[in-house]
Design goal:
3 helices; mainly alpha; elongated
Amino acid sequence: MILVPGIKVKENESFDEAYRRFKKQCDRNLIVTETRARRFFEPMTEIRKKQKINARKKMLKRLYMLRRYESRL
C-alpha cells in the first residue's frame, strides 16, 4: 500500500500556504529522499556525498565508543 500525500485546502487559504503544507507533508513522508534512493543512476557527486556522510558517522561512532571505554577505566 502506497500512501500518497494529500491535503485539503481550507477556506480562505492561499495557494502558497496550501503548497507549503503539502511540501511539509512530503518531507515528513520522506518521499523525495526515497525516490532519490530508488533511482537507478547515481551521479558521482551523490556517491561521494554519501561516502563522506558515512565516514563521518563511522568516525563519530568510534570516538563515542573510545570515550565510553576510557570512562570505565
